[in-house]
Design a protein that fits this description.
164 residues; single chain; flat; mainly alpha
């Protein structure tokens, strides 16, 4: 839809029409028409063709293989202290490695499309101390559970709490 509009604008550029007239006729902003005109001046109508959604990182299979190699190194190799890959972190790696910008949603879709799934640990963390967890459950958990207020009938009035 937008691509067709831009190609229609290119024809009007070729006829020498003013940006303000084109913008008014096609109900778009003058600024957009001016931006399209600059692009058209640089490379002609083919430069106005759609290059795909901005949120979809256009990585070739070869580039994705390189990305997987980077991810295999782990987050610590890229400057993060813990060992969690989040879409935001993968987005940062894509930006650094391939000089592409994309949305977090686009990164998630890219990963899912290539067989990656939500991060779920295959095993428990090495740092986990089961004795400490058991002690916490035994000593602290029941106090947290008991501290809840009991549900009892009340009044929404602050001035007459006992009014019917």
């Amino acid at each position: 839809m937008r691509e067709e509009l831009r190609l229609q604008v290119a024809q009007r550029f070729a006829r020498g029409e003013a940006s303000s007239v084109i913008a008014k006729d096609l109900r778009v902003s003058v600024r957009s028409v001016q931006r399209w005109r600059r692009t058209w001046d640089e490379g002609g109508p083919r430069m106005l063709r759609s290059q795909g959604p901005a949120s979809f990182p256009r990585l070739s299979e070869k580039q994705f293989a390189k990305l997987e190699a980077e991810l295999a190194k782990g987050p610590a190799a890229h400057g993060w202290e813990d060992q969690r890959w989040t879409p935001a972190r993968v987005r940062t790696v894509i930006g650094r490695r391939f000089h592409l910008t994309c949305t977090i949603q686009g990164v998630r879709k890219l990963l899912v499309r290539n067989g990656w799934s939500c991060q779920v640990p295959a095993r428990r963390a090495v740092e986990r101390d089961d004795d400490t967890v058991a002690g916490w459950v035994k000593e602290v958990w029941h106090r947290a559970e008991d501290s809840r207020r009991l549900v009892e009938p009340g009044s929404s009035s602050r001035t007459k709490p006992d009014s019917p």
